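User: Okay, second chain of the day. Same drill as before: sequence in, structure tokens out.
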Amino acid sequence: MSLFDLGGRVAIVTGSSRGIGRAIAMGLAQAGAKVVISSRKAPACEAVAAEIAKAGGTAISLPCNIGHKDQLEALVAETRKRLGAIDILVCNAAVNPYYGPLLDIKDEAFDKIMAANVKSNLWLCALAIPQMAARAKGSVVIISSIGGLRGSTVIGAYGISKAADFALCRSLAGEWGPKGVRVNCVAPGLVKTDFARALWEDAERLKHRCATTPLRRIGEPDEIAGAVAYLASDASSFMTGQSIVVDGGVTTAAV
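Assistant: Same drill. Structure tokens below.
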């Protein structure tokens, strides 16, 4: 179990007040990490931090809108001030304001998707990775999606942003690996969260997805947390620039 022990390490998880982000934060805290809960709304962040504390873990609430660079700078600075050097960064927060044909998307929606899902990750990595490199150790996990591996008739722009996250991961891994910092992705399939509600609340669409998924169901947020904990820990010390797909086998299934 020592391979997966995160005792004493400091982790920032963006978008961690609900859904997959919340599950990741809970999982890292259970493994011993001191976790920063961060999303736009303070009460939601505080509720998750309190839940972790009640379970015997350590967490603080630092609300932040990933679309504002100054708020990301404050997030990193306040984390270092209150908890110490950052060991683990999980870029989980994302947006998808558009559902429909790709060629009908408005410029504003496309720009918002790319800014939140790609540029903000680059900003946050630029703030955290050099500090990790100074200590020759650190792990960054970018939450991408199988949407970045497949085409879609309804969330194409989101898929473009997630494909970009795979490329961001590989490039950063090559740049910072020599200095001891690892960068990897986790690519969830369809998970039962409010964020993905449009994809699973329709009964017929859900029935089709389950029928074409080897495990015959969609995922739960907790089922993504284990892959992140692995990448954050020394159990994955020789792994960088890679992507772990957690999708119930849907991307391997015959059509």
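The first helix runs from residue 19 to 30.

User: Thanks, on to the next one.
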